[in-house]
UniProtKB/TrEMBL annotation:
Belongs to the short-chain dehydrogenases/reductases (SDR) family. The keyword Metal-binding does not apply. This is SDR family oxidoreductase. It comes from the Bacteria. It comes from Streptomyces yunnanensis.
Length: 265
């Protein structure tokens, strides 16, 4: 039983976080769990990592479940929601015929560090399939379950607004995601559902570890790009997502929130 003094901002809410086993997605899942949401941690490959996130959320007194749901192929979004329906009822039994969701975080994404001359059509299709098509259809399938007053939060990138020719297709996927966010906000506003994007800069995650960690020159360069003078941490992004997921952000919609620490101001 929750006493009022322990009320958490997301008590009674159900959240789905894609790419929730590592990096920014993991930080988001753990934070939403601490804030009281039941969290479905969707992951593509690493079952052990996803189970670890679920264990951490439970240790903190939260509720969570891992969903194995790779994204990037036709039918994947429907598969993800089938897994959600099946697993979430065990952890958040409700009266609904179909399990409901309150917060959808489209965080799953892949990098594509290729300039135009090196970019192949296969690379292009792959990065758009995961970074754009998957969020489109995760939301399309999720709308049947998304409660009025819900939240859609898309994890974009500073590359959506800053020229980075060395990752030209990746940047294009984030521009598309930002536009999708705008249209969702307009379309779903009458239901009290907000749609926003969060655009991180360089964050110290596994994805960036190879070139960033233990490389003082790279770290100094990355830190120098932010007005705040350091490399971003996953929690820096997760805390913004937590705000957008909460009641406090009810009057913010259709926005891309810059989470780069002030890159290239």
């Amino acid at each position: 039983m929750t006493h009022h003094r322990h009320h958490r901002p997301l008590d009674g809410k159900i959240a789905l976080v894609t790419g929730g086993s590592r990096g920014i997605g993991r930080a988001i899942a753990e934070r939403l769990g601490r804030d009281g949401a039941v969290v479905a941690v969707a992951y593509a490959r690493d079952a052990a990592a996803a189970d670890d996130v679920v264990a951490r959320i439970r240790e903190d007194g939260g509720r969570a479940v891992a969903l194995h749901a790779p994204l990037g192929h036709h039918g994947d979004a429907a598969g993800l929601w089938s897994a959600f329906d099946e697993r979430i009822t065990q952890h958040a039994p409700g009266t609904e015929a179909r399990p409901a969701v309150d917060i959808i975080v489209n965080n799953a994404g892949i990098a594509m560090p290729a300039a135009l001359p090196a970019l192949t059509e296969e690379d292009f299709d792959k990065v758009f399939a995961v970074n754009v098509r998957a969020p489109f259809f995760v939301v399309r399938e999720g709308l049947k379950r998304l409660r009025d007053g819900g939240r859609i939060i898309n994890i974009s990138s500073g590359a959506g607004r800053l020229a980075m020719p060395e990752a030209i297709a990746y940047g294009a996927t984030k521009g598309a995601l930002d536009n999708f966010t705008l249209n969702l906000a307009k379309e779903l506003g009458p239901r009290g559902i907000t749609a926003n994007a969060v655009a991180p800069g360089i964050v110290d995650t596994d994805v960036n570890a190879e070139w960033l960690r233990g490389n003082p020159a790279a770290e100094a360069d990355a830190a120098s790009r932010a007005a705040l003078g350091r490399v971003g941490q996953p929690d820096d992004v997760a805390d913004i997502v937590a705000f957008l997921a909460s009641h406090d952000a009810r009057w913010v919609t259709g926005k891309v929130i810059d989470a780069t620490g002030g890159a290239r101001l």
